[in-house]
Amino acid sequence: MSQYFPGSSNFTIESGIFNTVTHQYQNPKGVLESLQKYVAHGAFYDSGERFDPPKCHPNTRVAIINRITDWISGLNEDTREAFIMWLYGAAGAGKSAIAQTIAEILHHQHFIFATFFFSRNDPQRGAAKWLVTTLAYQLATQLPQVFRERVAFTFEQDPLIVTKSIETQFMTLVREPLLELLHSGFSTDNHMVIIIDGLDECDDPKVQARIVDLSFRLLDSRDLPLKILIASRPEIDISSSFDRKPFSTLARIALDDDYQSAEDIRHFLADKFDEIKTQHRLRSYIPVGWPANDSLNTLVRKKPFSTLARIALDDDYQSAEDIRHFLADKFDEIKTQHRLRSYIPVGWPANDSLNTLVRKSSGQFIYASTVVKYVASAHNRPTHRLEVVLGIHPPKAGDSPFAELDALYQHILMGVEHVDLVLRIIDFVVLHPPSSNYYSVTFIEAFFSLAPGDVQLLMQDLGSLISVQNYSIPFGSHKELMARILHASLKDYLLDQSRSKDFFLDRVEMHTQYAELCLAHMMELPSLQSNWPLQPITGTTACTLICLNPYILTA
After folding, report:
1. What gap in Å lies between CA 508 and CA 505, rounded to an integer?
2. Backbone dihedral angles phi then psi of residue 128, each to the nearest 5 degrees
3. Model confidence over 335-373: pLDDT tens digits?
4. Three-state SS at 374
5. Least C-beta-crowded within 10 Å: which of 19, 156, 350, 403?
6. What residues contact residue 202 under an 8 Å CB cut-off, 6+ apart?
7. Beta strands in 400-549, from DSSP E residues, in sequence order
8. Which residues belong to any copy of the Nephrocystin 3-like N-terminal domain (predicted)?
9. Which pTM value belongs to this model?
């Protein structure tokens, strides 16, 4: 009796009937069978449907891969407290290749992880319907039985769980099973990782934002040893979700004001700077009062931890050099493996040709990889195909050297509102680029008679092709809102009707429109005076001055 009434004594029950009721999970092995009906198999990092997936070429993207793996392992002090990392960049920047490479590294290092590679061209991977079940399935194949038992219990209690919202699915099929696993005594030396790639290719922008929100909700309490890597283009809904204030919450550190650590740090810094001022061999050149109090305060101020780490795939990661290395290696492969290799001249391709390809890549790997695939075709001469790419020879009828790139540009432009006006602005920027490759948004708005802020609104769906943000002005001390084309090959696409079709820009027609706008601005200009160049240049006057520049007069 004692097992039924612990702690009781001196009582008797006669002719009693006792029924022991315990919950029995369904066979946990059956949960994999239940889940696999709702799994997007092509979303796995090692899926046969995605073979051969894009991944980083050897010895490229080293800095960015190290930063991500250091974040996962907790080796980077700046991102150690962040449980979500957003990897973003322009279209074709190589985000999927980086995500694939990270997944393969995690596999080789025996991490527990799950992946979902979105793709707009795949019905199963183009929507979030099977996102959670696909992630849960992968975790269930790697984690102990307790995880599978909890998932099995969920299916037993609610067979229609797969029809519920992604929020409900995430909580019941991922979060709650992980918590139960941890409560059972399970521990791991490494964080588990979820990789969600190509979030911008999910078919519903609102769902994209919900997935970002949900990722934070899943981990906000910091009770799971889990990190999430999200890779996407910086589309407006995704960017807005990451920028919301609730996501800037700070990690709390107990050893703060109670132990006056700030004062200890100030004392330490002051002593060390005094040593520098008295011992450094250039101490005679250090001014009195160095360092300033403001500088000292900045150093003392505790840097807050963020729940989010961001990585922008920009020039900071030397993508141009990585692309040059990639192209050189691939051309070497062609010269040693192509069946017409004996006809390829020594020194091919020329350095000028390689430089042109690197420049047109604009730091985006999709251009370089598209060129390599086209040139390496076993059914054609590599030397001739490279000349087609460089514009030395026209392509054969039906031959599309940039089909993959063209499909990407078309997809992005099809989602743009007011596309006619947007194309006029893009055309103006790509046909009349300033020497710095940055175009003043203020001038664009004045030239096209737009209201302040219109360019940002018009370009908000083109963040992967055109950057609109504040840049430092050369030889100036302030920043100005500037537009910059992220793909040098975009100009080639728009000016070739066979490639751009409905988005084709007729150069003659566009120049005529710009000439008419210039004349209209000049008609509004007050009569020229001898001292006019010394007067403030704003508004219509600025437009007229720009219109008088040689590259505009070519219109």
Report:
1. 9
2. -90, 5
3. 999 999 999 999 999 999 999 999 998 888 888 999 999
4. helix
5. 19
6. 118, 126, 127, 128, 208, 211
7. 439-440, 466-472, 479-485
8. 78-233
9. 0.70
